[in-house]
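ok trying again, last paste got cut off:
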Amino acid sequence: MMKHQIKSFSVIFTVTLFCLLSACTKEPIPDPDSHDGEAYITDSVRYAADHMTVYNFVYPSTDPAGNPVMLSGTITLGDSVTRHRPAKGLALYSHFTIYRADQCPTRGELSIQKVMARSPLITISADYYGFGTTESKHQAYCISSANAQSSVDALIAARKLLTDMGYRWDDHLFNIGYSQGGQTAMGITRLVAEHYPDIHFDYTFAGAGPYDLPATYSQFLLDTLTGMPSTVISVLLAFNEFSHLNIPYSDLFIEPVLSHIDEWILSKRYTRQEIDALIDAHSMADYLTPAMLDLETDLSKRLLTAMDTDNLCHGWTPRSDEPIYLFHNTQDITVPPVNTQNLYQFLITHGATNVTLDTADYGSSPVLPAHETGAIYFQTRAIQIMADILGIQPWSIF
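nice, full thing came through this time. structure:
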């Protein structure tokens, strides 16, 4: 696809971004400890203008420490799927970075699901730990093992709920995610390879994910800047929290970020764009302590060691027979391309034989930075491949 098409695609991204920023508020959040561990539908929402119906549901899973918890997710069906007209298959879609509480799928952020509703697929999405039923908890940001488990458990629960409601589908299953969602999609690939022999994907689509967090952090220090400062801060907060490092925030961050961690990030009152505007910095020296800017300090090593326990670029054996599509815009400064390069090398040297690597200069602009530009190309390519597998014409909102 040629770069001059970016301009036309910018309209699509603008629509998606508008949907993200205008996410609607749903019903009161169910108690995560209720219903004795049984999955159940909490409500259904009809989106007539988008020709789709959404079932919100709660299901048993685990928190990042492995303790039982009830999490939440969505099942989205376009109007081409009914109880009398089976779907062509299922798509497990993992969402990108969110911060505001009402940006999770069950609270109304369904921009990608609206695209998928134009296909004959049923889309299943998890909120992840820290949103939906667990909104009051610290989000497990970029902890792929936790988010992957929440997603696989959502898939298992949704299949049973759909069957109980009388829906049917063909034996196709896709695994899709971009950015944090790309990391989650590959976390899902690892999880099913290790623990779920009966789950097989027709294709995994992983775009621009932070698969190798230590390499990501090192690249940011080398470049001295990041495209989204909020994501760096949130990764440090999440691994400090869930790896039980108990590092005081004052050892990690400097002012003005230090005094505003609770308000800007942990409150879940702001979007990612709003948080980055409040931080108003791109250089890591503007919000991290000198100790965190030096990879050789004990403090940095503790955080990097914690991140490495969740590294998708080592420590597991991929299936050899399942197709994987890896995408990255080489101009991306939000998630450095070293992530996809490292993941690709790991996969092909550990037995994966059907991996497609799509890394190229897909451009950027002041209106559409490289990470967001990449999302459009990634979505387009994933739709094309899925349509080919299903034997249908590609669907889209172009």
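cool. The beta strands are 40-47, 52-62, 68-78, 89-94, 121-126, 173-178, 203-207, 324-329, 355-360. Residues 213-308 form one domain.
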